[in-house]
Structure formats: structure tokens, C-alpha cells
Amino acid sequence: MVFNKIVYDKSETELTVCSFEILAFFLGNSKVCYKDLDCFTKDAPFTNSFGTLPESPDELQIKLLLFTRNHKAVGQAVVYNDPQSVQQSGYDSTKPLKVLIHGYMSQGDADWVINMKDALLQKGDFNVMTVDWRIGAHKIYNQATANTRLVGAVIARMLNVLKDDFGCDTNSIHIIGHSLGAQTAGYIVAFNELACSHQRAYYYFTESILDACKFTAVPCTSDKDYAAGHRFTKNRTTILDRTSVVSQIVSF
């Protein structure tokens, strides 16, 4: 139960209430279970959504689309409990898999997702899977946060099918998430966060995929040393090109 507004009729004053989400922690179910996926509780460490539990797969209608160089423009739908959908998708287990997950108030055909998918397919002969959980992402923030747990479970099941039934090499899986998509990725496997501008992150990452644009960096002990020009440049230059790194999660 979540209250967003309280209206006092006498004064015709509208009071916006921002903190009543915590009531959900004490009200409603303490656990939900969804067939073939998992059971979800309010227990620690899942306390970042004020006791809100994930909505059902039927409500969220999560869509996974597979793109390859043979299907660049139109993705082929794949379903974790339908191996035949994978067989018909053009998935090739000998090629690396890139998984793109959008974030809060976004969708699987967002500009950054399409641009990054296209850049990846231009860069290499990959399988690129986009995850569209727009219904669950366009909810009040604590509900969207809770929904990432179910999205993560769906992706994990899909990856297990690719591994067990189709011989996918898990070392070739590269998961890329932005905003709550990064949190979703964290429910699949442990991940390392990149410290960068949140809203510009996917632009920088997409540009780093292509050979024409590289971002170089040198280590420095502090902002003060950087401003003074004291940088450690000898044999310490780094080039950002994330396509050379596999079996990792990148979060924005």
C-alpha cells in the first residue's frame, strides 16, 4: 500500500507525501514465488525497495530479442522456457554474446540500446540480446527496483538455457546495464561498477566500441596533482575499449 497524496478539503491544500512507501514493508505479502524462476522475499539484503516485491512475469511481459549480423534490424524473440525459439533465432554458440539491459523509465528500443547494438554488430560478429522490461521500469521507483530482481531471474534462466542446451561459453558473455539495468545485471552475477557520468555513460561506451574513437587515460594521485600536470605517464597509458573484455558486467 503506497499513498502519494493527501488532500485536506477545508483548506484545499494538497500535501505531497514522499515517505509512505515504507508502509509497504509492513503490509502485504512477505514472499512471492513464480514458476520456473524463483521465490522472492523482503529479507536482507533485498531491503532497497521498501519491502516491495517483484511483480509477476505475466504483468511485466519481459521481452528478449536476439540480433545477429544476419538479423541486424529486426530482433528474433527468444524465451527461456522455449528452446525452439532459440533454435529459430539464429543464435550461434561459437560467437560471443552481448546482453543490453535498459534502466528506469526506459525501454528496450531506446536510442542508446539500438545505437550500441548496431555498433557492436559493426565491430564484431556477435550475438546481441536486448532485454525489454519497459512495463516494470515505468513504475514508481521502489516497484521498479523490486522488478529488477525478476528481470534478473529471467535473464539468468535464459543464459542457463544457452549454456546447458546450446553450448554457450559463459566466458564469452558480456552484460551491459544502464541505470536500474546495472542493478538487474548485478542479480545475474557479481559485477564491478564504472565511475562515470551517469547520463552520458552509454554514449561514451558506444563510442569506445568503434575503432574510430578511443578514450585514453593516465593514472594520477589526486585532482591537485592532475591540475598541476603531475601525472604518471611512463608505460601507464590506458585505452578504453570494452569489446576486448569478456565475461564481465559493465554498469552505468
Automatic annotation (TrEMBL):
Domain Lipase, by residue range, is 31-187, 194-233
Its domain of life?
Answer: Eukaryota
Q: Could you read off the lineage of the organism from its UniProt record?
A: Eukaryota, Metazoa, Spiralia, Lophotrochozoa, Mollusca
Query: Where does the record place it?
Result: Secreted
Which top EC class applies here?
A: hydrolase
PANTHER family registered for this protein in UniProt: LIPASE
A cellular-component GO term for this protein:
extracellular space
What's its EC?
A: 3.1.1.3
The record's family statement is: Belongs to the AB hydrolase superfamily. Lipase family.
Pfam families from the UniProt entry: Lipase
Q: Which SUPFAM superfamilies match?
A: alpha/beta-Hydrolases
One GO biological process term is: lipid catabolic process
Give UniProt keywords alphabetically: Disulfide bond, Hydrolase, Secreted
> InterPro entries, from UniProt?
AB_hydrolase_fold, Lipase, Lipase_panc, TAG_lipase
State the protein's name.
PNLIP
Q: Name one GO molecular function term.
A: triacylglycerol lipase activity
